Amino acid sequence: MMNAHVSMLEKEWLEHKIITRAPLGLLVCGVLLLLAVLMNSTIQSNVTYELTYDVDGMGSGFELGQQLSQMVFGFTGLLSIMLTTFYFPKTLRKERQEGSVMFWRSMPVSDLTTHSIKLVFGLLVTPVICSILVISADLLMWLVNVMMAQKFPLFFTGESILYVLTHWVEFIGRMWLVGVVLAPVAMLAMAISQKVHSPLLVMLIGFYVIKLFSDSLLGTSVVGDFLIEVTMLPLDVLLADNPFIAMSNIGLISLVVYFLLGAIGLLASLRLSRVVD
Asked: Tens digits of per-residue pLDDT, 210-241?
């Protein structure tokens, strides 16, 4: 059974190579940019002399290196969210359009297993793939710092490789938490994708239509505020100092309603997956 699950995850990876190619492409661009900076002595001199140092001569470089590392952290998180957002509206639709859904229906794999594998790949595996940017950036900065004997403060991120590893683990952990709060949207997207050709567009239009009509007909902004809160929740969890506080700020009732809608979306998707157009 484990081999079957691994094979299904591999299938998702082969059919959605953009999730791997996008981080790798950005990594190559980043490495080329780093090499260009290192080969330009003028840039190195400007950075070295323009930075201000505190008493021990290392504080400003450390702060700048931390800021650069955190910028990579946030950018990679946004990339992961974007890839996940584009993955779920098309994964089931793609199988229907290509006819591969009939092949998998002939296999001893339940619809629930298929949905579970897609959720695992989109919400948990995708951040791990994207995390290559985080650990590569930190590792490269650390290596440059070691080789240059700390003469180039721009890349100073820590005194040991421990920071590189802990920062990478922190990214994966936070992005898995982001995956949890993205799960209801993913479930709804898979359900909608089986009935419309442009599910992402339909979801975007539906968001504004529901918000507009709820504000007008109900005379209250409760529904609109709820939609905005749950839409911003993944970004809040990614960027907040404490992701759990960001989740608690939305309120328990809103969280329960949000995940209930996700469960309804999953049930609807499972029901629709039994019918092949």
From this structure: 888 887 777 778 888 899 999 999 999 999 98
CB atoms within 10 A of CB 201: 11
Q: How far is CA 34 from CA 60, 85, 140, 141, 164, in A?
A: 20, 30, 9, 9, 17
44-73: pLDDT as tens digits: 555 554 544 444 444 455 566 677 888 899
Q: What is the pTM of this model?
A: 0.85
Range list of H helices, 16-125:
18-38, 41-50, 59-98, 100-106, 111-120
71 C-beta neighbours (distance < 10 Å), count? 11
Q: What is the DSSP string of 122-158?
A: IIIIHHHHHHHHHHHHHHHHHHHHHHTTT--GGG---
